[in-house]
Amino acid sequence: MPLQEKLDGLWHNISSTALMFVTKGDMNGRHNYPGKPALNPILGILFIIGLIMSIKNFKNLYNKLFLFYFLISLFPALMTYPWENPNMLRTYTVLPSVVYFIGNAIIILCAVVHKIIKNKNKLFRYLILNTLYFILLFSCLYELRTYFKYQSEVFKHSFQIKLPLEKAIKVQIKI
What we know:
By secondary structure, this protein is mainly alpha-helical.
């Protein structure tokens, strides 16, 4: 394989794996709903905010640790054939880092909201905090709906073999 083809494949893997989190996900129904991003829109925004803030505050030991872990966890997906990406199963080890970045974003947003509502009246604080709770609740319900309503149907057909086992694996079973 020529060097240019390898570099093109690596670039495809980098872009498809990066976009898997927020735009176009894995097409394999065994891993998730085909084509659905790994993160819903709310978590995707929080992930990006947290990732950017972790890069910005790189001096923090935990940010260094989770950024390093994130990059190492992406390595298996980056070193595979381009036509097999995006693949969530190859990148499931990034989940601790993803959770850390989302948590960082939530902490940052809470600090910003606290500064905004610190000297406001109780009704305004109540509305802002309940709006944040509603957004997080909506995110949870969105994922539950996807999993139990849509992905459960796809998953049933992901492992289904319509042929007798001997024909499906092309082996003669002698009795």
